[in-house]
Amino acid sequence: MITIFSNHSKINLKHINNISYYNNFDFLFLDESSKRTLEIVKGLNTFTKKGSLLDVLDKCSTSMGSRKLKKWVESPLINLEKIERRLNLIESFTKDLLLLDKLENILKEVYDIERLVVKISNGTINPRELVSLKSTIENSKKIKKILESQDNFYLNLLSKDFIDLDDISSEIDNVLIDNPPVIIEENRIIKEEYSKDLDELFRISIEGKNWLLDFEERERKRTGIKKLKVKHNKILGYFIEVTKSFLDQVPEDYIRKQTLVGSERFFSVELKEMEGKLLGSKERALNLQAEIYNKLKDFIGKEIYRIQILADKLSDLDSILSLAKVSNLNNYTRPKFNNDGFIEIKEGRHPIVESYMKDDFFVPNDTFIDTKNNMIHIITGPNMAGKSTYMRQVALITIMAHIGSFVPCDSCNISLVDRIFTRIGASDNLAKGQSTFMVEMQEVADIIENASSNSLLILDEVGRGTSTFDGLAIANAIIEYIAENIKAKTLFATHYHELVHLEEKYDSIENLTIAVDRQDDDIIFLRKIIKGFTNNSYGIDVAKLAGIDNKIIDRAKEVLAVIEKENEGISIDLNKEFVKDEHENPEITNFINKLKEINILEINPMQAFNILDEIVKRSKEL
Prior knowledge:
Elements: E1 3-5, E2 10-12, E3 29-30, H1 32-37, H2 53-57, H3 63-74, H4 80-94, H5 97-107, H6 113-122, H7 127-148, H8 153-159, H9 166-175, H10 196-223, E4 229-233, E5 237-243, E6 255-259, E7 263-267, H11 269-301, H12 304-330, E8 336-338, E9 343-348, H13 351-356, E10 365-369, E11 376-380, H14 387-403, E12 411-415, E13 419-423, H15 436-450, E14 456-460, H16 468-486, E15 489-493, H17 502-505, E16 509-519, E17 522-531, H18 539-545, H19 550-566, H20 586-597, H21 605-621
Parallel strand pairs: 3-13, 8-12, 11-15, 11-16, 13-14, 14-15
Antiparallel strand pairs: 1-2, 4-5, 5-7, 6-7, 9-10, 9-12, 16-17
């Protein structure tokens, strides 16, 4: 048992039975930036579950299932055996919709026993919640029986996960009434015949209530006071209340107890004697009932670990059923896996975008990335044409396959990846004094440092946050580094058209672009990925589609024509290697080398001052 202390109370943590070691490398690692930009559990615009991959996949019937599915989505698997087990179960349910529906209906009657475990541990669980636990155990037995009856190896195997908790449900059934109240202070919660002593005490209490009703009626007739009432409160006990208009009819054997504004309260010897019997029997009954209930809680408290196992298996089943249901609703297919390092997707679709397109048709696209001739794809094309959507859908389909989910495409064959990194969109961190470009470069630095040849990199418009030449140089260098050193499967979207020449330099690089249909002054984005490249960003056309005033559009075309005319014939050869200047000044080189040899830890302040003075003089001479 684990106990922790706070400033106010001691909290029991019996529900924590073991501590397991969590290793990021046991799962497909997604950093926070990737989770955010790919909208794994939160939409970029909503900051909530709505608009996320989790929102698409979560059709769970229980809160336990939704929490479990969230864990699966945030931590996809890299163990192929575990992935295939989930896929086998999902496939079994997609082939039997009646079975899926039957199990879903049972799960809707299942209580969140995962949360109840904490209350059981702390002893704060109420009788109604214990009856809900009993009901959940009974429903789990129904589920187990249904799974066992199926002519399906994987479902039969799944049924064995549902452990027998009959002893717990039987004990709850033996002790508690079927529909107990939440508050037990003044109410009976223990079944009749469970305890003879308790039955006797409650019998006396009930008979006492009947006696009070008879006593009240007798006193009304004896005194002639029609509004005479026998009442009770915790301070005075039982008393007779008479309004002041009837005080002249109060008999002499009544003893005054309390005077109020509009009435007076009395008691009699007969009422006082019965009060002792009534209060004594009720107090003893409630004390005995509390003792019995506490023993029941202690019994269940010792079985917390078994209840947690059942909760875990119910949430697993609920998550599997949710993924199976989504697969049927959205026409997903089962992914295949290979050990050859390639990702091949036929007619792939973006799961989130597709789910929000009610009337429009989502244009699917093929993908083939490997570790040889198709390792890096440089994707050019206009804004709003679908580059980012395409890259994100490749990442999301890969993630879904690692979750063990069916995926939105006609077919796919995926090699397991260790990490997915994304560099998408613009953001800054003003609180830390970091510009958009600084944040972008920090994210790229993290990718370069941690990516491996088994990673999938999604890079969108790297280098756009600085001047054109700086950005182009950085983007070019990054692609070359990935091609020569990391050798990771990479999708690189860019408006730097000069980068397409890298296809000639590296066999591992292939150019892709977005098909565009131009009709007179209008363009139509076909949303289709094709081989090749474009040297036109269609920026002015996109501005026009966005609703920019025609005067601005016309002026932009005039300025663009002037710029293109001035730069006509100018080209940048990025394949040209940099050669060091043979006539580099050797004195400057020697001066820099001497500076490097200075060890500031071995000199005193006066020596440092003299060295600084010499540096200033020497630099002026050079």
